[in-house]
Amino acid sequence: MNQDRIARELNTSKIPVREALRELEDQGLVYFVPNRGFVVKETSYAEMIECFKLRQMLELFAVRESVLLSTPEYVAQIEAIIDEFETLTDPMVSSHWYLKLHLALYAPTGMEQLREIITRAHTVAHRYTHIYMCLTQDEAETQEEHRAILEAYRRKDVNLTVRLM
Predict the structure, then answer these.
(1) SS3 158
(2) Is residue 112 classed as helix, strand or coil in its secondary structure?
(3) Which of 69, 72, 79, 91 could cysteine-pair with 108, CB 3.0–4.6 Å?
(4) What domains are defined for the chain?
(5) What are the two backbone dihedrals, phi and then psi, of residue 38, each rounded to the nearest 5 degrees?
(6) How far apart (Å, rounded) are the C-alpha atoms in residues 21 and 12?
(7) Please, which residues have CB within 8 angstroms of residue 42's CB and are 6 or more apart in sequence?
(8) Residue ranges of the alpha helices (H) in the chain?
(9) pTM
């Protein structure tokens, strides 16, 4: 990716473009090659499997830790996020919404390192989810599934919440 060209197209200086590319590098989506610039990281089956295994392990741990710490305020925030999804019309926004929902489910833990690791795992895994959905014409989870998770969470049923996740 040519930083100069991107800056021109966005009508900005190279500095914010370089910062954004560094952030994408931190997220594992691009890498820097000296004398060449930033390059988009290729997808791989091994990376996909690793990402989804990591997400499963981290997110199930996070929800186990979170359910019993939850308060009615957290439950209300989660419910509002689920309600908000009903109004979305842009499928490109859905990945941000899914991350927002998942992070809200884990918020009661207060574990910032876990939050950051899950955010990175979501970012990398989203590439593969998007590819899968385009190739298979499959659809994401339904709101009924999200509402079932919310109900188990609300009842503080750790085992059911984990199973539904």
Answers:
(1) helix
(2) helix
(3) 69
(4) 3-40 (no CATH), 45-164 (1.20.120.530)
(5) -90, 140
(6) 14
(7) none
(8) 3-10, 14-26, 45-67, 72-85, 94-106, 112-136, 143-154, 158-164
(9) 0.75
Burial class (CB in 10 A: 0-12, 13-18, 19+), 163: exposed
Decide: 10 and 17 in contact? Cβ < 8 Å.
yes
Does residue 49 surpass a pLDDT of 80?
Answer: yes
Length of the chain: 165
Dist. CA 37–CA 18, nearest whole Å: 10
Q: Are 48 and 128 in contact (CB under 8 A)?
A: yes
Identify any residues that bridge with 128 across adjacent strands, giving them in sequence order.
none
Using an 8 Å Cβ cutoff, are 3 and 10 in contact?
Answer: no
Question: Which among 48, 58, 5, 6 has a CA at the least distance from the CA of 28?
Answer: 48
Model confidence at 35, pLDDT cuts 50, 70, 90, reads confident
| Calpha distance 150→146 (Å, rounded) | 6
- Please identify which residue in the block is written with the tokens 């590098």: 25
The per-residue pLDDT for range 56-66, each reduced to its tens digit, is 999 999 999 99
Q: Report residue 14 CA to chain centroid gap.
A: 27
CA angle 161, 163, 165 (to 5 degrees): 70
